[in-house]
Design goal:
This protein is an all-alpha fold. The chain has six helices and no strands. It has one domain: Four Helix Bundle (Hemerythrin (Met), subunit A), CATH 1.20.120. Helices cover 65% and strands 0% of the residues. The radius of gyration is 17 Å and the shape is globular.
Length: 164
């Protein structure tokens, strides 16, 4: 039980530091969470950004909790999980945290109609892809071997598979 509590506290700290800054603080610095005046299009379209924000937040929180409770570790590279986590949203996509953080950023871009936040989202998505391909996947393959290779063969990297 102590291991899970320690992992949960570590995951929470990393949640605040990483996604909190990347998907919260920086978009706020760009937009002040203040929408631009409505354009010629319908204002209701902006509210679809709330769907992306809500879904992204739910996935991030669930994935961080799963790393702590099931994997007995954190998403932080300095305190990784003891076991490979392949349940929850990880059944549908290998990188649900990165997908969710990107959804949070693009949701804010849509809600506030701020092109700067959308451009930032594109840069973050490119950085995530580069990090995953050059560091994370080789590291996980080294740590978990055939188990991770089989998981990669069965589960898409970015676009969630809607069926098991």
């Amino acid at each position: 039980m102590a291991g899970r509590i320690k992992a949960a506290l570590g995951s929470f700290a990393f949640l605040v530091l990483a996604p909190g800054v990347v998907a919260g603080l920086i978009p706020w610095l760009i937009s002040n969470w203040s929408p631009l005046p409505p354009s010629d299009g319908p204002g209701a379209v902006r509210w679809t950004g709330l769907i992306l924000i809500a879904a992204g937040l739910a996935v991030v929180v669930e994935a961080f909790a799963r790393f702590a409770w099931e994997g007995l570790g954190t998403p932080a590279p300095i305190a990784p999980t003891r076991t490979l986590v392949v349940s929850g949203f990880y059944r549908f996509v290998r990188n649900p945290m990165y997908v969710a953080v990107t959804a949070l950023i693009f949701g804010q871009a849509v809600l506030f109609a701020i092109w700067g936040v959308a451009l930032y989202g594109v840069l973050v998505a490119a950085a995530f892809h580069t990090f995953v391909r050059l560091y994370e996947e080789p590291t996980l393959l080294h740590a978990y071997g055939d188990q991770y290779a089989a998981y990669c063969a069965a589960t898409p990297r970015w676009i969630p598979r809607l069926r098991r």
